[in-house]
User: Fold these one by one.
Assistant:
Number 1:
Amino acid sequence: MFNPFEAILIITQFIVLLTFHEWGHAKSADMLGDATARHQGRMSLNPAVHIDLIGTILLPLLGTLFGSTFFGWAKPVPVNPFNLKNPRKDMMLIAAAGPFMNIVLTFAILGIARFSELVFDFPQSGSQLHAEIARQWRRMGLISVFLAAFNMLPIYPLDGFSVVRGLLPAGAARQWENLSPYGMPILMCLIFLPGLLRIPNFIFGFLAEVSYATFYLIEKIVGLR
């Protein structure tokens, strides 16, 4: 079982990352002509406007404390497709903006970690505090990459569903949209069923492989490897 302080740190990191993720959706929608999120106060980096009590705090906290599946969400950003010039294409771009923001954040987080190493000479200092700071930066970067990878799954209501819809021809996109009612049950089964049946979660295993590979690549780019 995690200690409570560690759990609070993870949830705080999660909230910050979700805030930027949702801001990415809101900002891109505004840039593409839909000001709905801005008018509702959602184009903000204030975490309070994006927090869903159950999805952003309670479920992730329970998962962290008890070592069960870590799962959560923020309030969805409102988008009115009728305000967009090319609704299908623009909705795809708005959906992709959230995961893209997480990748940008990972570069920023690991860049800060690298800068800290250079300025404070963390690797040579041997300080336990310095090692812990570096660990926290890296973990936050890894969570950010995983958020991007998870949200790109082509399952409603995740961002990947809208991205795939935007890439398909109009007729196929309409057929794809018909799958949306089944998305949430499928997603819940993928997340929780393997744990209940005590079988490997191959989807999360695949996402972990993709996330670690991306994370290590970004580490190498910023000079941490």
Number 2:
Amino acid sequence: MSSESIWFVICLVLVIAFFLDRERRSRVRIHETLHILEEIIAGNENRRIHVGDKELMAPLVFKINQLVDSYQNDKINALRIETARKQLLTNLSHDVRTPLTSVLGYLDAICDGTAGEEADEYLQIAKNKAYTLKEYIDELFMMAQLDADEMELVFEPIDLLELLRSELIGWLPRLQKENVRLEVEIPDDEYFVMGDQLALIRILGNLLQNALRYGGRHGDIGVSAWTGVNDVYFEVWDQGPGLSREEISRVFERLYKGDSSRTTKGHGLGLAIAKELVQRMNGTISMESTPYKKTCVRISLPKSKKK
């Protein structure tokens, strides 16, 4: 056998050995991948498949890991929704039944004559509690509409400053009745945003209600507005007890009620609704708090051209 033939045989053997080793490695890799997939299916969702970027299986493994991540996120979201549903039922049991029982108690006292000279006072208390209950039910209904995507926003150019000014005028009688001073810093100008008018009114109302509820008896409340390069801003502030950083990080969650004196009166829906509406108008919402000095909720919305 010539030397050329010997070298040919050696090269052929090396090539065959290379491909056999490559096939063996592929079989091992496939076996390892199947083993990891079995672990994931069995419930170990933290496992992931790792391969080199240049490996033949890399695109397939990348897609598999994406599917596992998506499944894990869906499972976490489903658990969060289920937890929120249970919390909602618990809150409904307390926040609806308790005031309703109280209203019925006052009305029974009036009807059976035990209220005596306090009948008018009892009637007013029952009326106030009934309105509070209606407000809560309205919030629940709106949140349900948002969740079901049944609330269609009508977008149009809106002069945000004019809307703020006109809506604040309607709040003055209530603020005067509760002896709360309103500070307003709104430029005499036109700043247009693309949004839904009713949604903007609801957002402002929720923020004012929040400020009045928690800060009204501690000092002034206020509304400010200004413009940036691309956005229009407005904020509603109060001088109440404020919130801790931990509470601020969760204050826009629906049904969230913190432990501080500021978060015990509400139902945990007003700010959540405001956040949902702001985000649907491509805006942002945030909160800053310095207790008994200034706690503000700030909204930013993209600028728009006039009609």
Number 3:
Amino acid sequence: MVDLASTLAEHNELARIYEPRGKAASTSFSSLEMVGEVKAVVQLRDAAQEQLSMDERNRLSVAYKHTTGRLRTAWRATSEILPSTRNFTIAGLVRRVRTQLKDEILSQCQEVIQLLANQKVTQDEDGVFLLKMRGDYHRYQAEVDGEKAEHQLQAAKAYTEASTLAKEALTPVNSVRLGLSLNHSVFLFEIVGDRTAACLLAREALEQALGALGDADVEGQPEVTLILQLLRDNLTIWRTEDPIDE
């Protein structure tokens, strides 16, 4: 008789096997296979009314990051090509591809949001991670959908709730908290169009993290170092467009 534990173990192991190849080639067959396995894990956990483990949540994030990221990159490429396309026929083809990509992005993002729907928001890093993912995928929907108001509202709600929880439960140099601040500030800049709020949020996260570095060991945490650099880079770019008083 096959039990829940053995079935979960099988899907998790298959997802783990597919993961390295997915990182190497996000357009590969292995990325789609990884998505299939992590979906099965989430559905089994939901059926048993159980929370995802840390490894399972990370694989869920990685799997959809690859597939959705590929679609978003392609959508952005068509958006950049279209204004300079003077041939009427080619422009029509580009618009058609862009619409197809938009529909795929909206569908895949909604799939992720539904997969997360039954996961309980706990008062710890797992809860922040979950809310951040919800915010991210609503943001991706708002990015491509002309009717973005509802997506924007849901993204703002998730990011705000996640930020409140992160300040209560996580240190300023926690990678999940920093990643949330990075993505939330990008949302404010790109989707909401509020440069001032985006800069203030990014600057606050950066300053708090740098202030806490003396109390935390970030050696061997390249993700933290990378996020701090991305926050710096964004601030440099955004301030040139909308200077913030120091």
Number 4:
Amino acid sequence: MRLQTFPRYELFDPLVPVHQITDGKRPTIHRFFDSCPISPSGRYIALNEFPYQDRPPAPGDRSFVVVVDLASGEEVYRDSTAAWDTQVGAQVQWGATDAALLFNRMDEATWLPHGVQVDFTNGTERRFEAPVYHVSRDGRFAISPDLVKIGIAQAGYGVHVPPGRVAPNSGAPADDGIFITDLERGESRLLVSLADVCAAIAPASDTFAPETNAVYGFHTKWNDQGTRIMFIVRQFPAGARKGKSRNWLVTLDADGSNIRVAVPPHVWSDGHHPNWEPNGDRIIMNLPPASSAGLFGRMRILLGKIGRRTGLPIGRAGVPLHFRSVRFDGADLRSVSRHQGSGHPTIHPGGGHLMTDCYAYEPMAANDGTVPLRLIDLATDAVRNAVRIDTAPAYKGPRSEYRIDPHPAWDAQGHLLTFNGAVNGVRSVFVADFSALLQ
């Protein structure tokens, strides 16, 4: 087994073998819970090492894209980039083969990020006009929102540019939206604009009027089949750069057509973290139950938000979220488990299990900075804590952008699970081997 090269993590008696991939000295993350950092062949893992973790990133500061050979434990590639942020780094991920490593760089003459594809075995690199956020499973296409503006919606997911380089949106602009790159041809274009999306989901209305609204694109994800895209549209009061947004979960076909609302704002409410299910037709996410409507439900949501922002235990008084599944078009919304929702839920490639982490403020977390990775059998609803991992950062950041989210991510076979954790406050990467447990 290749992971035997790396030291075992044995705290709190993990359910499966867990190995610590990084050294616990240099702050390092894997990207996100919707992409696997392990290469298509299973030999390499691609990570993002930060230059520091004690202050917010500044424009021009560089992090490092690192590839490690899981067979030897040796680092086989390292290069720097100024196009990164604290939660998902430089969007490091793989294309169709081990010869296609994708991430973002920054053109510091224009302060515009752009994607690159590197073959680290021969040192060649291709540059694309648009940035990379999520790569299709077959490695053919990459999609992205505007990574310069995404920080207005939420800190930690885009890039850092000098003050004055970020112009807030007014309404739903026609030059911002989902950008797509054909990774074979090297061609980039605007696939669908925010103006088009908003016109489709709220036709003949002033829902997104520029006088009162500013609309931004956020998470943008392919389904496994490469046939559909999910897109989070975040709606703020005009001119606002922070505060509560109204969130729309939208889906569309790969060509930009068939725009549907999967989850409207009144259903989203205090929900979070949608992810495609393996079938490509349904989405799993944390959502409040229907019973959260009304004054009592809104009060519980408010208490939960106060608790999260202050760290006080009243955060546990918020409306419990459920793991809920919905069709891409918003039909057939249903709960898949009686267990409380949390964190970043992802369905095992085999379809039979749900894996998720949680935030330190959620009730299933311990009071010592550690959180469980919960494995739920979707047939029996039995739950087991597969791993318990420290997520307490040495420095949280002014907007919690340095929090350590495990972001559990399956490999394509459903054998290995990569996740982030903390080693003495230093963000670190771990891999758990579920091959024997989930055969």
